Amino acid sequence: MTPNLQPAVSPDHRSALRNSRWKAGSGPALVSLRQSDPTAPPKVSLDGISLSYKTTNGKPLLALDNIDLSVRAGEFLCIVGPSGCGKSTLLHLIAGLHKQTSGRVLIDNKAVDGPGTDRILIFQELGLFPWLTVGQNVEFGMKMKGMSKAERQEKIRYYLKLVHLAQFQDSYIHQLSGGMRQRVALARALATEPDVLLMDEPFAALDAQTRDLLHDELERIWAETGRTIIFVTHNVREAVRLGDRVALITFRPGRVKTEFPIDLPRPRHLEDVDVARAARNILDELREEINKSLEVEYSHEATH
Amino acid sequence: MKRLTRMILFYTAIIAIWVIVAKMRLWPPYMFPPPWGVWESLKTGFQDHSFWIAISTTMKRMLIGYSLSVALGMILGLGLSSNKFLQETLGGLVVSLQSLPSICWVPLAVLWFGLTEKAILFVVLMGSLLSVTIAMEDGRKQMPKIYGMAGRNLGASGFKLFWHVLLPASLPFIVSGLKQGWAFAWRSLIQAEMIFLSLGLGQLLMMGRDLNDMSQVIAVMILIIVLGYLVDGLVFRTAERKLQERWGLSPS
Question: What is the ipTM of this complex?
């Protein structure tokens, strides 16, 4: 049985894609990648999400303030913001691992409460299970779902092949390089076949070459599987490289400041001029927020 | 190899000194038996099956008592680590009870259960339960939170989350506690057997005393040491090494 990979674009849209432009020699092969459908219905909607908590000195802190954000089915949304703006927390809220103070998370227009395998989060630290092999890690979510053993084996093979790790099925996590671990985490998340993939700065700790490679792979996998992806990063270039849209979150309280649509053809590359240009616009706005966050840090230093 | 040679040299030296002192006849042989006397006791003990019976009885009690204390200790430790109320109340009690030597449970066990198998198991249980509980609680606290979150994220909850994620994730942190629990259980059991006098290695030890048979006393002591060392060295060290290999924690 092959995994259920529904085509995310209609046939006529696909032929339109085939005629769309791409840069010659920019990829390993001249593949036309799926662009997301601008008319698709919303998959994830954040409806007035706020989060406040007490800091260690007892003062309440408003981390996220009234966030409204809508992500279309099959869209690749990137969220950027200065560190400490609550963008990771936002992903945890969508994943249902934390509870927001007010507001609702809607999936397909239905409010969700708690974790669910329709949206899988790839943590910054990955959280791969060191006591399981690569294959067993990928199997984990399916096992929890109660899938039959034969079906699980089939899908382990399929998803490990998708991330080019087929020959590492019986390795343990600590035997893999950082980039390979990233791909295991991706395979583990994809194997539960979630509609929504939440990624929390997954490539931050990798060297540049590995990261470039994983960008290509993620873009390809996204195009092939038609998943909705919400991708958090502090790297604006990376956000423009990957996203259909980039949302900028402000520093304390976290609000959606601006949303930048990225209408560049795929596959893209980090060093593309268009990518750099789009990134510069976003970076200008981001810099204000970074300055704000630095001011807070420095004022702490002055008072302590 | 070098290590093995040194070990052989060391134990040969000990036995040599023993032989010399025994040959000097500072004390009569029934007070200070020579190595060959102890060797004879070991041989007859195994030949007339009394040692085999004692070993199997003792090990059976160990397995039952220790399994009980691991199962109960895990539940207790889990409760303590996840419930603040329990931690503040029962947690303190557990720590303070740990200062009670397990032999102190013997009078209570005798009054409750009589001179029965149950009483022995109770003493073993009380001897190791608390250290297993504390190990489990600490293990859960030391375990990186990310594993629990990742497990919930992938659809695990309730018992499934405990069995497939929290338990294996905390194993490297509780294995030394489990080992300590075993050592405590072992001590408690031998002590209890010496008092209850119902088969087992502890009873053999006391029988040696009653018969004024110092060779047998030392032979049984050696048995107790060897058995304890084997379980610790083979079972627990292997488990620890396997865990470290899997997690990539091994120092190699």
Answer: 0.78
